[in-house]
Amino acid sequence: MPVQIGVHKNVHKNIKIVHICWAASGMTEDRAGTVSTRPRMKNPLKGDASLDESIYARIAEAILHGRLKAGTKLPEQRLAALFGVSRERIRKTLHRLAAERRLEIIPNRGCFVPRPTVEDVRTVYEAHRVFEAGIIEQLLRVLDERILAALDAHLAAERAAAERGDRAASVRLSGAFHLLLVDQLGNAELSRFLRELLSRSSLMVSVYEPAQSSLCAVDEHGAIVAALRARDLEAALRLSREHFSHIESRLNLERGAPDEPDLAGIFAEE
Ligand SMILES: [Zn+2]
Questions:
Q1: DSSP letters of 144-197?
Q2: How far is the CA of 110 from the centre of ligand 1 (A)?
Q3: Domains along the chain?
């Protein structure tokens, strides 16, 4: 019997954005933007480094945007043919993505899009809930108009990205909201921890959430900010906890890789 956790439903009615953050996966935001919005190269044979970067970005983007599902196998030979490069170069790129935990290499079996288990998902979102509760408590001690203004500006950017349908920006800004909360504390260890955690949850959202209903409301971020502004600790903690639970409950672990993924279609030039 297929495994499914939580209830599959659309919780939010208004503006919706995907709650994942490329920036969280160990990159800077600038780098994140570059990866998300990198123009596709019609003729990528312009030099080894840029070609490698281009292939890396296109595979990473396909994972981020949910085009590569959990468990999809990425055969070196097939990718080499699709990108018109040697297997060695593809292997190098796949290893780089595996080192970043965006792909999984299983000895003698090949390279796969990770398939996090129910337990992986539960523990990661539980970590998010517990971690952000601590962050909110600390944040209320230092909260001032400057921080609130930064949060308001971030919410405005999130809304604008959602309204113009800019998925890449929405993805980046969505996770960046939580980083903005933690970064206000000026504790590099806490910031680093959240980046690591977000890179894990981002991947789960990318490979498991259905493309259309996979969305997380900017309204929920807005509600957290409103509770912070009101200095209502109890409400802020509850809203944050519910926020991560909503995201977790929408993950549909039933969605696995198709038997024959259309890799040519997935990596086709647009
Ligand atoms: Zn969020």
A1: -HHHHHHHHHHHHHHHHHHHTT-HHHHHHHHHHHHHHHHHTTT-HHHHHHHHHH
A2: 34
A3: 8-36 (no CATH), 49-115 (1.10.10.10), 118-250 (1.20.120.530)
Of 171, 150, 183, nearest to 216 (Cα)? 171
Which conformational region is residue 110 in: left (phi greater than 0), alpha (psi within -120 to 50 degrees), or beta? Answer: left
DSSP SS3 for 111: strand
| Predicted TM-score (pTM) of this structure | 0.71
Tell me, rounded to whole angstroms, the distance of Cα 113 from its chain centroid.
Answer: 14
> Residue 257's pLDDT band (boundaries 50, 70, 90)?
low
Centre of ligand 1 to C-alpha 37, Å, is 21
pLDDT-derived band at 165 (thresholds 50, 70, 90) equals: confident
Give distance in angstroms: CA of 99 to centre of ligand 1: 26
- pLDDT tens, position by position, 69-78: 888 999 999 9
Residue keyed to tokens 């909110």: 136
Give distance in angstroms: CA of 20 to centre of ligand 1: 8
> Using CA atoms, how far apart are residues 171 and 203, in angstroms rounded to an integer?
12
The CA R_g of the chain, rounded to the nearest whole Å, is 19
